[in-house]
Amino acid sequence: MSQPKPEPVRPEQVFDLAKQVIAADRFPYLATVQEDQPRLRPVSPVRTEGFTVFVANLKNYHKTAEIAANPKVELCYLSDHHDQVRITGVATVLDDRKTLQSIWDENPLLRNYLGSIDNPDLIVYRIDPVRVRFMREWALEYHEVDFQRPVDA
Fold it and tell me: Which segments constitute the Pyridoxamine 5'-phosphate oxidase N-terminal domain (predicted)?
């Protein structure tokens, strides 16, 4: 069996290709660390702004303590064609009430499940990227994404 030949990626395509992968994957994987043990789980982002990702959480979930101890995280998105985007970032608890209210208003599942934006169990993490990489299936080569570029540029 011959090795598949991935479609080449031109540098000017990387940003848009990465955005397409993110838009297509509703359940990326979030990696954290518990002491010296990596932990990985699917998450459902409640908002994405460019390459900044917001993830809702409950205080009693294991990732709460993991992120409190080490806020360095990584998200991995995978398309149906197995292209991937990896967002290495830092998670912080969202404390901006206006943004939290907007996320709350846009997410009926949050409202139905938690009942109130003031539910003490609710945490929304803002994951700010420090590095974003894109890889085409079978290419085995990452392309750096200029995540600081304006989204509509």
Answer: 18-135
